[in-house]
């Protein structure tokens, strides 16, 4: 797929409308930045059903859809942090944990009280030295949004030769256009062969489709 086959801006905007748009964005994004999704890239209903029996609960519709669509695609789920497999899903203090930070410094989950919602809000639980202070805190308003951000962010972190961390205060090149805001504290920008995300004004990450595209981004930055 080339840049003209997939309108990332339109797909990101549509993803904010609901699950169908979110999964269409993941499919288009995966094909644009790597390999198209294929049968076998997700977990089976049987595997998800087995997880439900083991846990004694029903998984939200959106979670099942994401796991079936791309749950096995490590390039979209587990380059930095890790999407838990159905066998690894676990319950902790009133929430179903589905994703772990790469050094187990935090987990993402869905409150058990929200599992009956098709596309429930998500929560995060930082790992603290004082365990008595640990709490599940609000994260994304919808699981589908969290899944989209996971897929995009993990893809940006896939190839270190094509990825670079920028200073958060750097002025972005004028050739970049801002994309719809998806993800907690995230601002996304697109340019010729590059995608940039700035997170909470604390760090910024750029990914190039090629080394030349990434070099061109640096060449346009003031002072570089």
> How many distinct folded domains?
2
Task: Report mean pLDDT, rounded to a whole number.
Answer: 92
Structural class: alpha+beta
| Order of SSEs | HHHHHEEEEEEHEEEEEH
CATH class of the largest domain: Alpha Beta
User: What percent strand?
Assistant: 15-25%
Describe the structure.
The protein is built from 7 helices and 11 strands. The chain is α+β, with helices and mostly antiparallel strands and 224 residues long. It has 2 domains: 8-150, SMI1/KNR4-like, CATH 3.40.1580; 159-220. Strands 1, 2, 3, 4, 5 and 6 form a 6-stranded antiparallel beta sheet that branches. A 5-stranded antiparallel beta sheet has the order 7-11-10-9-8, covered by helices on one side. The two termini are 31 Å apart.
Brief summary:
With 224 residues, the chain is an alpha+beta fold. The chain has two domains: 8-150, SMI1/KNR4-like (3-Layer(aba) Sandwich); 159-220.
How do the strands and helices of this protein lay out in sequence?
Blueprint: H1 8-15, H2 19-33, H3 45-55, H4 61-70, H5 74-77, E1 82-83, E2 90-92, E3 95-100, E4 106-111, E5 123-126, E6 137-138, H6 143-156, E7 163-166, E8 177-178, E9 186-191, E10 194-199, E11 203-208, H7 211-220
